[in-house]
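Risk register update: the risk of archive-format incompatibility is retired. Evidence:
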Amino acid sequence: RGVPYPVRIRGVETGRVIDETIEVASVDQAFDAQTEWRAVLHCFAGEAEIAVSNVGDRGYDVEEAVDSLSSPTPPRSFPAKLLALLVTRFREGGRPLLFLPTELVAGNGRRLAQILSTLAIETRQSDAFRSWLAEHVVFADTLVDRIVSEAIEPVGAIAEPYALWAIRSGGFAEPFRHPALRLVDDLEPFERLKLHILNLGHSVLADQWLKRGLAPGETVREILANREVERLLMDIYEKEVLPGFGLQGMASEAPPYVATTLERFQNPFLNHRLADIAQNHQVKISIRIGGFLNWVRQRESRFAAPRLSEVLSS
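Archived output:
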């Protein structure tokens, strides 16, 4: 067991203020891949039973030439690093592995598996390795839903009470036990709730922030103190979002998620800056709002959503 570090849970849950600290003692080793690559390879090949990834928006991009895997230093891209780790694990006995990606990419496990399969061909890996990769390494689709608002130095974090880690089941046992863990047959309902309620709401508020003068440093909680903005968001949820989810057969799941989302937005300890949410605004509203309207109009082609349509066209 490692030296404990704090994770402070702060926020509001079902009307109750939460402010508690959990001492985490599950980390007993840490490596810098750039300077300790051989140690990373050794640990991954010989000790890992389950692996988890969490890389940035372009983390699945492959950047280097096909011969870079033989270098004593790590490849630049995450997929190439992972392939090097898997090749080493295969050469040192090839124990099975469960891989849990947490990147905010739909079908992240299946997508990562396809990237690794293609990269294995491009780097001329053996047929035996490629068969092992396909048959003994499970890349599960997952969805993580939790806001971690800030770091605690030198190590630690502050997070909201709400937490969900949904994992699409498929031939493996529950990796561990935790109240936030859900092993499910289908991730789409969870993805739709997060994307078209939580993320959609964030983009509606960012759109209002952009239109109202770009107050530096303004947060989600602060803009919702404006009654006009709050009323607009509530109208969108009640008159457009919830009816849309109803048309898609999710009339029971959506209202409690809206209520939870509003609590999360009002978290008195969370400083979620609208300037951060507004980055890549047009892309986000296309996915979050345009995607919602396209999804609902599969069931009702004339579904009216004037407020969301206005944000989408702005």
